[in-house]
Amino acid sequence: MTGTALSLSELPSALAGKFPGKVTPVPGRKDMLAALKVLPEAIVPVSQFLRDQGTFEHCALVSGVDWIDRIEVLYHLWSDEYKGYLELSVDLPADEPHVASVTPVWSGANWHERETWDMLGVRFDGHPDLRRVLMPEGYRFHPLRKSFELREPEELEVKARHV
Amino acid sequence: MTEGESSAKVITHIRETDPAEPEVPFAEVEAVQAKEFIPVMKETLTGMIQRGLEAATKPVFNWAGRNSLFPLHWGLACCAIEFAAGFGARWDGERFGVVPRSSPRQCDLLIVNGTVTWKLSHKLITLWEQMPEPKWAIAMGNCATGGGPFRTAYSVVPGVDKLVPVDVYIAGCPPRPEAMLDGILRLERLIRERKG
Ligand code: SF4
Question: Nearest residue on chain B to A143, judged by CA atoms?
Fold first, then answer.
């Protein structure tokens, strides 16, 4: 993609032109090339654009933060061209958060999204195999939610089973 | 009452049997009793021989078993480092005949040396059930004994005795290799006392 790649200075205007009103820069992130807040419905086209035109070919991390009033899902993208990270974030409602999966764009996002589902209960629509990854099947909680309280071990108990 | 009358009476008394009960010839009774007697006697004799053999060999097997405990070479967390040190040159657990083996089929001792999570729990049970009887389990360290520092965590089994029957608990976070060897020697004493 290096032939058609935009330079870093062209990227904000290109994004604003292609996705008007859907992408807003988040100021004050010195450790990243840029941080962008994306509307949930635009995450897949924006990802596609950044991968193909912006050379962000590596999705390094998908994670989430529970802000109690909303759930924020973060995507950290690495570009070998610019030698730096770009942060995308989407805000989702705290009850039944769900967003389109970026696994079709970066296959490496598969297990990251599974982990975010496991820990925070964010559903990724269109994910090929959205199962728990760190907790056993049959676990009843999403333990990184702020509403999850420390509780007696008996309550957590999962029936041990053979596979 | 005359003498004749009295003897006649005795005879009639003897002949007074229950009419409902059919008369069985004596020889047949003998045969039936023998048929029942032979297998019972056989069982008793073989049982006696078996028990005698068992009583004679059990101490031998017990002695051999308790002096060559083969633990499963299975490291889970930080306690596994102490487990490894215990079988290294300095503490040398093998001088007690304790040799870690890599297959559960060859082991009779499961040392759970680390934090067991719920995700891992069914693997632990599978390994335990793959080990042939007689077998023993040691919970090494606070994590295996009762969840340790992670007792209230969302993912940790609070004590492996919820999953497998544990014989000896070793306290410590982590227990020193001496403590682990002491636990194994205590298990040996336990096996000797059980005589099984
Ligand atoms: S008891 Fe302590 S040393 Fe052992 S596995 Fe648990 S945390 Fe690690």
Answer: B154
- How would you class A57 by CB atoms within 10 Å of its CB: exposed for 0-12, middle for 13-18, buried for 19 or more? middle
Q: At what angle do helices A11-18 and A43-52 cross, to 10 degrees?
A: 140
Cβ–ligand 1 contact at B145 (below 6 Å): no
Residue-wise burial string across A78-114, b where 16 or more C-beta atoms lie within 10 A, e elsewhere = bbeebeebbbbbbbbebeebebbbbbebbeebbebbb
Rounded Cα gap, residues B111 and B139, in angstroms:
6
- Provide the phi-psi class of A61: left if phi over 0, else alpha when psi is between -120 and 50, else beta: beta
Judge if ipTM > 0.85: no
Alpha carbon of B101: minimum distance to chain A alpha carbons (Å): 23
Return the CATH fold of A11-156.
Answer: Beta Polymerase; domain 2 (3.30.460)
Domain borders along chain A are 11-156
Nearest to B76 by CA among B4, B12, B124, B40: B124
Angle between the B26-66 and B177-194 helix axes, to the nearest 10 degrees? 160
pLDDT above 70 (res A157): no
* Mean pLDDT for chain A overall: 86
Ligand 1 contacts CB of residue B149 (under 6 A): yes
Q: According to the model, what pLDDT value does residue B13 have?
A: 53
pLDDT at B20 over 80: no
B163-187 pLDDT tens trace: 899 999 999 999 999 999 999 999 9
Distance, CA of B74 to CA of B100 (rounded, Å): 9
Number of helices (H) and strands (E), helices first, in chain B?
6, 3
